Amino acid sequence: MSTLTAHRSGPEQTEPVTVGRRERKKQATRAALSEAAPRLSLEHGVENVTVEQIADAADVSLRTFFNYFSSKEEAVVAGDAVRGEMLVDEFRSRPPSESVLTALEAAVVVFVDDLVGSGRREQMRMMRSSTALLPHQLAAYAASERALGVAVAERVGEVVPDDVDDEDRRVGLYPALVAATTMAGMRVAVQRWTDGGTEDLEALYGVIGEVFERLGRGL
Amino acid sequence: MSTLTAHRSGPEQTEPVTVGRRERKKQATRAALSEAAPRLSLEHGVENVTVEQIADAADVSLRTFFNYFSSKEEAVVAGDAVRGEMLVDEFRSRPPSESVLTALEAAVVVFVDDLVGSGRREQMRMMRSSTALLPHQLAAYAASERALGVAVAERVGEVVPDDVDDEDRRVGLYPALVAATTMAGMRVAVQRWTDGGTEDLEALYGVIGEVFERLGRGL
Q1: For chain B, which end, N or C, has fewer CB atoms within 10 Å of the first or last residue's CB respectively?
Q2: pLDDT tens across B156-185, in order?
Q3: A33 CB within 8 Å of a chain B CB
Q4: The pTM is what?
């Protein structure tokens, strides 16, 4: 409603409001595409779904679709990228008194809550079994790992230059290793749950606990 | 020479010899394509190289190229897949008296020897910086990780059904976690060397040692 009001105030409206409204509209469009793409892929098979169908379902043009994603596959796995950002944000918000691994485990649990919360297990299975999607999922994971490495470096007091993209930030061995192994452990835990015969969430949290316990204790 | 002799013995030759010769010819073709693809990509930029150029360099037809690889990108990163198989073979060949982590570290060192042995650092940098190649590299890593998980499971005495593809073999949490975190740690070590300012191999082996020490001790 506030966005409509802002719109009605005409082209003289202040810059921040315009940016805010545009940004919200962009986020809503991205969310609609990111929701439609895996849903339609599960329904029809990812190889049968077209970019046109995804754009139609989100009520945008083909051209608009390509403003957000470079391919159908990227749209289907977009949720992974968003959850990766959420994981990093959650880790950063943990109390400084917590150890790195404790803070990471708490962030992973929040990540997984979102991942499994809405009956997305069938979608995850579909994604796992698609050779076309796997590389895109892995690319999203790699981006999350880089961002997490930067967050861990900052938490342990490493100075990381913030005038470059996450992609180019170099972090020390410990942050890089912790980020990589934590993401790997989380992926292993989630995959076991996705592939398993039961929807039992307690079992998933149990496996996550065991993964962090082993990482903390040594392999 | 023995293959030529076998050839001259005519179509009545025994089946194994024929298979052996064909298999060797296929391996040679694959190796030639896998060598030409990253070399030409480094020379001209991966986005400028065509499948035709790669096929020409390996002296095969376009059609033959597509018998081996489904895309240019797959051919450029093919070495990663081969080295992944080598890593698993090396791990399997380690004495049973060695702990899992010790055997893995020894296998990783052999893997890295091959990776860095022939001035391939520039090629690795090129691959790392290409968004088109990254997903394919990650897919090769994922395949190696699955195969390594099966090898670790067998080493620790887990019974893994061998009548299914590696892809479908389920292993316990420990083998899956060890394979995932070891591959992650190796990737971190190699990337630091690839991105670093020095060709110093001793430094790379030092980082690998530190990675395994930390994985063994706990993070």
Answers
A1: N
A2: 988 776 665 555 557 889 999 999 999 999
A3: no
A4: 0.76
